[in-house]
Amino acid sequence: MTPKEQIEQELNLPGTENKGDRWSFTAVLPRSGFVHATHTDKRTREAAEIFVKKIKHRSNGVAPLFLSDAWVYSNPLFDTYSHYEPVPYSGRGRPCNPIRVVTEELKYAQVYKKRDSKGRIESIEARIIKGTEQEILDIIAATSRGATKINTSFVEGKNGTYRKDNARLTRKSACHSKKAIYHDSHIFFLTGVFNFCRENIGLREEISPNAGLFEQKYRKVSPAMKEGLTDKILTVNELLMQRLKKRLS
After folding, report:
1. Which pLDDT tens digit goes with each residue over 38-92?
2. Nearest-angstrom CA–CA distance, 201 and 183
3. Which of 2, 96, 124, 127 could make a disulfide contact with 110, Cβ separation 3.0–4.6 Å?
4. Which of 51, 21, 23 is nearest to 38 (CA)?
5. Rounded CA gap, 3 and 74, in Å?
6. CB 79 within 8 A of CB 49
């Protein structure tokens, strides 16, 4: 059984309709905590394909290191970061169809969490789907802030912030979104606020080590500042009035 078939069997994908009417796909850059791409839709393979294409469109197109939970992103990733090469004709019979060649730069690993009947985590397993474990660990060490192992802590932390700051995501309450348009709009608005209007404490820069009381010791840095998209933390008004054209590498 291939890794993809094993994952599908364990997740029982035909029952994904139980995951809810709306799902938020989120891609976070570990080096800065910048929310690189979001997509809200039903939890389907088609929606995952749109999400992965957004990631590629908003970057320089180079295949990234992709870390996710144990859900089937394999096909969307391989379809997006691949090309087709012709098969040389052998001289007999019908010519073969072109074969798909996945970009060598693409590295992909999944974090599988096994839970008991009450939903409590029993074990956590990292599964290498594309590339080698050492290649992935080297990329994590070079691009992440202090991370040393395969994990999805950055995106899980951001998802927790979304739930904390967006009451529309709280089920069984009067605040829960009844229409998708309001749900999606709030997600996109909060994404801009997280990226441009809030300080990331882990990124702050020390500018005056000997600063006294009430003197500025650190320079506050937002994820967008770390990515070079702006030179200051924006106000919400400034965020809504700006148009950014630069793409992330």
Report:
1. 999 988 889 999 999 999 998 888 888 899 988 878 889 999 999 999 988 888 8
2. 28
3. 127
4. 51
5. 10
6. yes
